Amino acid sequence: MFTILPIKGFIDQIDGFYCDGIHAGLKPNGNNDLGFIYTKEACNVQAIFTENRFQAAPLKHFQNYEKNFQTNFVLINSKNANALTGKKGIQDIDTLFSSLDFDLINPIMSSTGVIGNPLPLEKLINGAKSFDLNAKNGEELSKAIMTTDAYPKTCMYEVKLEDGSSFKIGAVAKGAGMINPNLATMLCFICTDAKVSSQDMKEALEVNSDSTFNAISVDGDTSTNDTVMLLANGKSNAYDKDAFFEALRLVMHDMAMLMVADGEGAKKVAAFEVINALSDEDAQIAAKALSNSLLVKTALFGEDPNFGRIASTIGASKIASDEEKLVISYNDVIVYNKGELCFTPEVEEKAGKVLQNDKYKITCDIGLGEGKFTAYGCDLGYKYVEINADYRT
After folding, report:
1. Domain range 269-389, CATH architecture
2. Residues of the chain with pLDDT under 50
3. What are the recorded Gene Ontology BP terms (predicted)?
């Protein structure tokens, strides 16, 4: 048995973790743009990355280390992705780290921002040299990694085990646009003092990614830098596999929901629940098609319960389906029932009221089996176009 309790605070509350964020001159508005996570002891580290074929230099640099390596330092910058920068992008990371007079063990870099520009090395080196590695300022770190985010994204949990021991796990993340199933334009750093093996960390990340970060969509795009990184220093000497897997799932789900809710001007978050599909795979295909559909997203923005867009998207996904078995509902309001046109003015009004909420569920019962999957998406409106039209400026 175990108990998982949400707690307030940032990752600096976890024993042995230090962090901070500063302005190093990358963002012209003076906001934080460079941060770090540090531990005096080496941490086990595992990560999952974007499926974009053009992975950024920081991802390649990470993967140049030996399998199951340990680290004690992560440097994170915003405003510059260091992507599509060739071999020099990787060399710049090595140059940066070799310029720092810190006791670093296999240092890691993570970047987010504009693709195709070389790293501003002088600014990064000068900024990093000013770090106080004894700082515990998770709030400033959370601001440093933001790009188009409207707000910082963090969460924390304490896990109490049956033998009286406990560990903490928490995360800091950024992500608001270019978010598509198969990670997102996101960086997420999860820290824990659990005494967890590198193998269990790898397994837990992979098991929990499908229902969290790989189940959200803002705009159907996948970037070059997407990263979910898990760091464990073992300082608590506490561990239980079931408890750890569940706590990590909660952290990843919290971060994923914060990202989709912050979808560059988004006002609505919808859970697209597909049930009774012929297989789980079919359910996943249909749910992700719904969360990605621009027509569906704009209908959500207009608070229009246009079930035709829902049905059309399911049909276009090419999963096994039959309009005589399909049932579509907005929360508990059924708008289409096995070929029966039940979309009366009264039903439309009720469904429209559901869409006026900030969060709701759209359920599609395929009626052919027992497969199920839930994907998460948001509306798409004018603000998204405005942000992305002006992104480089």
Report:
1. Roll (3.10)
2. 177-181, 391-392
3. L-arginine biosynthetic process; ornithine biosynthetic process
